[in-house]
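Input for the complex:
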Amino acid sequence: MKIHAFYEYSCMHPCFPFKFVLTTLTIDLLLQGPDGYTVASAAADETLRFWQVFGAPDASKKTKTKDAKGAFNMFHTHIR
Amino acid sequence: MQSADRTLDAPDLLDDYYLNLLDWSSTNVLSIALNNTVYLWHASDSSISELLNADEEEGPVTSLSWALDGTQIAVGLNNSVVQLWDSQSNKRVNKTCLSLPRFSHSNIMAIAKFDMIQLQLRALKGHHERVGALAWNGPILTTGGLDGIIINHDVRIRDHIVQTYRGHTQEVCGLKWSPSGQQLASGGNDNLLYIWDKSMASHNPSSQYFHQLDEHCAAVKALAWCPFQNNLLASGGGSSDGCIKFWNTQTGACLNTVDTHSQVSSLLWNRHERELLSSHGPNQNQLTLWKYPSMVKITELTGHTARVLHMAQV
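Predicted:
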């Protein structure tokens, strides 16, 4: 499971004499559909947390979430 | 007790109860404002991109709200202006970057082109102070400011201000349109909750309120219209109130009050079950799930180490 990728590019092309720096960050985890089951919360501890508090769309997904929960608990990445 | 499924760092998130800095679009993109910058988190592939970075004179960002179509987003600023952005998914920017071994001239052009997908459509003026609350009702964008004024903007027309609601004497921090689009609930730092009716407003450009509800004894930020019962509104009060109240917005009657003993910052109804979720400040900084209408606690979600300020749901 790819968790974290960080890219930074600089470019000094003669046609574009400026520094072009671009950072990208991706997290490959469970995909999430627009389901109405997941809630995001943002707090003064400067974290954004996701909770599957309104249940799960079906039983199979429920099991999957439970299994994966341990890994997500430890998961921590920067939004920027 | 449950813990979070995942956690992302959100550095520089302003610790300001009166702002609304988190929203989730119908196209499954979560937007969050971190000081002067608005970031988009694409839930479908968990990629992150930047929507805008406000100037020092403009910022910080004080509110954001997706239109129902999930492509337009309104962004309220500290300098009292509301910007309207078209944010067609720029996931391609990230994808392109990841697939490129090096940048070349043509690649830079490609990136620049993709970046143009995010466009500022217009800037809406009308307030005199920061805009901390936003709510959409079709093409109408409603904005609430520190000046206590609520303005309805029709974003399709040049003279965009179509109505002004005057009632609050302090900052407007909560704004929600009912599912039918007929009634607007507004909460303020003056501890008041107002219900405004659209049909009353259409006859008069500076309208009277439908109900003025004064039972909270702290700022009213948390507002949520019930998805399964017409004219049912839940509201939550700030620290010295800590109550969740239920209202019949036709009659203005308070149906029930539950004291949570903690600042209520946000309320969300479960669209699948008769349940309500509330978010809180100290001591527990938790999310509490309630059974409705019994208001029996189902579960508490803990993990946040400081007060919860915002919640969002797809």
